[in-house]
Amino acid sequence: MKTNLLTSLFLFLFIYVNGQEDLTYEFIFGIELRECQKSGASLTNIEDIDKKTDFTIERILSNGDYVIHIIEFSNIDSSEGDNARLVFIDTESNVKRYFLLPKADFDKNSKVVVKLPKNSFTFGAVTVPIKFRFGSKDDQGNRERFFDFTGDINIGLSAGYKLRPYRNDKFALNFLAGISVTSVEIDEQTTNGFVSTNTKASALTPSLSIVFESQNFQFGIFTGIDFLSGELSDNWVYQNKPWMGIGIGYGIFNKDDKKSPETQKTPN
User: Fold this and answer.
1) Nearest-CA neighbor of 68 among 102, 93, 44?
2) pTM, rounded to two decimals
3) Could you tell me the CA-to-CA distances from 172 to 41, 118, 159, 196 in Å, in that order?
4) d(Cα 90, Cα 120) in Å, to the nearest integer?
């Protein structure tokens, strides 16, 4: 039951995060656009939009054209001008203005820009390539378990907090908590003779991790505990014992890529 609750929680977080993130675009050149309603119904006003103005897509019309909303500048530069008049109909009520952007103009006169929050929620799957298990002795100095390292297979989900220094899209630090099903190797030595041959067993693994991202390179430090079930849990020497893991390379922390505007679902 606990596993089902955790799975439901992570599924909810996945839907929530992917539903909250939107792509931001920027005009490469200046352009004239006609104002419209959110439904796409055309209005009479035509406005000049400066280059490097950011916008988001509100909906995609049946003919392929876009209804967009201009994003207000966070820092007004004298060379850019004040774009507030393009953002809101009435600055006091904050009623949005919308503009029609033909698909042909979108294709040749816009590009995706990274406008990332400094801190944000993140969600994905974590792989731990190398896992270290620590040895110990009892009070009489007898060996209870040996130091070991493995490359267990992990299938699970992680969620946490992403920090981006100065909102840089090339660097990020992820603080993650996760739950996964792990395939661990057990044998006669690690079960005090309970099993006689090397075999695999499934464990439920809660974990904590820190993953540093630099473009396509990732480095992660992990810790967690593997819980076997049934009689194995009473005989496995690493049961309830924390492990440490490291990962270096690409794809340690995997996140879903964003879909292109053409594949996004049209808002209601």
Assistant:
1) 102
2) 0.52
3) 41, 9, 15, 46
4) 30
